[in-house]
Amino acid sequence: MATTLSISSAASPFPYAALATAAYSSNKIDISIEFDVSEQPQILHVDGKEIIAESDILEALARKSNILGDSTKSAALLALAKTLPTITSFPDLVAGLDTLDDHLAYRTFLVGHTLTVADFAVWGSIKSSTKSAGVLKNGNHPHVQRWFSFVDGLAPIQEAVTRLIEARSTKARNNKVAS
Amino acid sequence: ISDPAVKSFIESITPSPSPGETEKEKAEVTAWIDRATNGIQLSELNADLKTRTYLVSNYPSLADFVVYAAVHPTVTKLTPAEYYALPSVTRWFDHIQHQPGFPTSSSSLSPVTFDIENAPKGERKTEVKV
User: Fold this and answer.
1) Does A145 touch chain B (CB under 8 A)?
2) How far is A15 from chain B (nearest CA, A)?
3) Which residue, A106, B9, B14, B89, is the most exposed by fewest CB within 10 angstroms?
4) Residue A142 and residue B52: Cβ atoms within 8 Å?
């Protein structure tokens, strides 16, 4: 049965983690990614079920494409991915990225020696948070930057982000025609 | 590749590491092999690897394995304090020796064990909001 991830191109914060996990999984499993303009930010159709919450979508996709990684090691990182976009205090945000930078100083990827769902979850939370991106621009987290630009530059992720930008501009054009 | 030990190490990797996909990448791989032949300073390698995950492009290539072999004799002798002071070399070296197809036996270049879990935290200056 086909697995489909539908994402609203207007969703805010945008579910970049789900988009990246699905895009990367497309090398391993049969999955299609669709952009729409529904109220629902994201919805995964898999094995006759509908999954709505982004963290549940990540888990379901990771399980199917076998990129879950060591769950005891990824738990704290998945938690960080969830809280990072909600942090409003600047020192707390810097502290979160400091922890991540120390972790990535001696590790190529977040968990083990291959890309796992933790990488896409944390990449997505930074990508969707302008505050985190702003702190990274200060240049005090070189190891996070090295890792972030690696994930950002992966061919399936670039392709998915390009499709998102196209979907958004098509929507903008249609809106103009309608009005 | 002139060094017979490096040559036999490279030949024992399956599948054979990529020599680069584009002409530009192939030239970069060749440049790294030349550098490896002439001797590489770990401090310089650390600076190169600070911003890149692999030596050439975004996948493990022949360059990574040749440079791995070239610096192995030095890296294997480093004390924890010394390899903690070269985080990017340590990160990359440990990653390369965990690649699928890395020869586990019958190689003169045995994997080096690093105590990553107890690595020191980076020293940071206080950030000011701009």
Assistant:
1) yes
2) 25
3) B14
4) no
Cβ-defined contact of A90 to B129 (cutoff 8 Å): yes
Long-range contacts of A8-13 (CB under 8 A, 24+ apart): A8/A35, A8/A36, A8/A37, A8/A38, A8/A39, A8/A40, A8/A41, A8/A42, A9/A35, A9/A36, A9/A37, A9/A164, A9/A167, A9/A168, A9/A171, A10/A37, A10/A168, A10/A171, A11/A41, A11/A42, A13/A85, A13/A128, A13/A129
Fold entry, domain B4-96: Glutathione S-transferase Yfyf (Class Pi); Chain A, domain 2 (1.20.1050)
- How many Å apart are CA B118 and CA B83, to the nearest integer? 12
User: A104 to chain B nearest CA, in Å?
Assistant: 8
Measured between beta carbons, the chain A residues lying within 8 angstroms of B95 are 108, 113
> Rounded distance, CA A35 to CA A106, Å?
37
Total Cβ atoms within 10 A of residue A109:
19
Domain extents in chain A:
3-178
pTM of the model: 0.94
* ipTM, interface predicted TM-score of the complex: 0.93
- Determine the pLDDT at residue A178: 58
Q: CATH classification of A3-178, choosing from 3.40.50.150, 1.20.1050.130, 1.20.1300.10, 3.40.50.2300?
A: 1.20.1050.130
User: To which residue do tokens 């996990």 refer?
Assistant: A21
Report how far residue A114's alpha carbon sits from residue A120's, in angstroms, rounded to the nearest whole number.
12
pLDDT in tens, A32-63: 999 999 899 999 999 999 999 999 999 999 99
- Token pair for B62: 């022949």
**CA B48, CA B69: separation in Å to the nearest integer?**
17
Mean pLDDT by 10 residues, chain B (130 residues): 86 92 98 94 97 97 96 96 97 96 76 94 77
